[in-house]
Amino acid sequence: MAHMDKRRALGRSRSAAALTQMAAGQEAGRQCGDHIQKALSTPTRPWSPELPGYIAPLPSESTQRRRKRQSSEDEDPCTSYERPAKRSAEDAYIKGPMLGQGGFGSVFAGTRSSDRLPVAIKYVTKDEEHEDMEVEGQGLLPLEVALMTRVNSAPVCPSVLKLLEWFDHPDRYVMILERPDPCQDLHRFCEENGCLDESQAKKVLLQLIEALKHCESRGVFHRDVKPQNLLMCPDTSEIKLLDFGCGHLLKDSEYKEFAGTLSYAPPEWFCSHSYRAGPATAWSLGVTLYKLLCGSLPFKSARRVCRLRFPSHLSAGKRWQTCSCSQTEITAGASRS
């Protein structure tokens, strides 16, 4: 009897041990399953060769965005006129002889290194009167660059000079402009070849009006129309309006500050120190046309507007066209006074 009781006790202890072992196995299995599930739900982290056995932390979302921006900036720099190029002008262009110089800075002939394209390189100093303009999506741009960005927006006008790209520096900015070849500004052309004949003047006038209408449609007031700011191809008489350094945004109200060339300034500027964009543009257009046809300015002094005198060889039609530009301005000025 005692022997049977001993056997029953041994069986119960074995069963209890088996249950304990099973429970321990289940717990270990559950912990292993949790570990596997956790490992699957956690992205694999890269191994860093910098320190043996070191697991580099995953980059944060902001770090990934920053690296993406840096990699995009390391690509080829932008060659659009809409923002400054990242490389230097000296690396991309070969500077040639000087084409002109003034209070704004200087302009040189140049060649693009990559394809030998003829260009003009304009250096503009940032002085105390330097103006910037906020352009949506591009931030602050030098006013001249911003105005050319506007007039170069599609659809472009073939009679307005193109800005190819620009470079920004703390004390100056550099503009890369197209340079038609051959070409010559109309002031120098007339000095070397004499006045334009009437057929040439008509072609120039129609292109200039189209260019100024295009500027108006882009909200830009050029403010310095004159023969020096018109490039002409002598073979085709095609022109390009250039130099927006005196320009400003177009507005309906009067301008109280003058920028441009006084010889082409409208009469009301000298009377009231104010003028409007449309009539002032018409006046400078008339003075320009007279200069191209007659070889001189229409008045001995811009402050004293008197009766126009024309050379005898000039047709009645051209006399009327020139007078109509001046009459438009005089009538507009009288209506405001």
From TrEMBL:
A biological process from GO: regulation of mitotic cell cycle
Keywords: ATP-binding, Kinase, Nucleotide-binding, Serine/threonine-protein kinase, Transferase
Keyword Aminoacyl-tRNA synthetase: no
Bias kind Basic residues: ranges: 1-11
Domain of life where this protein originates: Eukaryota
Pfam families: Pkinase
Residues noted as binding ATP in the record, renumbered to the chain: 122
PROSITE patterns, per the entry: PROTEIN_KINASE_ATP (PS00107), PROTEIN_KINASE_DOM (PS50011), PROTEIN_KINASE_ST (PS00108)
Catalytic reactions of this protein: L-threonyl-[protein] + ATP = O-phospho-L-threonyl-[protein] + ADP + H(+); L-seryl-[protein] + ATP = O-phospho-L-seryl-[protein] + ADP + H(+)
Descriptive protein name: non-specific serine/threonine protein kinase
UniProt organism field: Onychostoma macrolepis
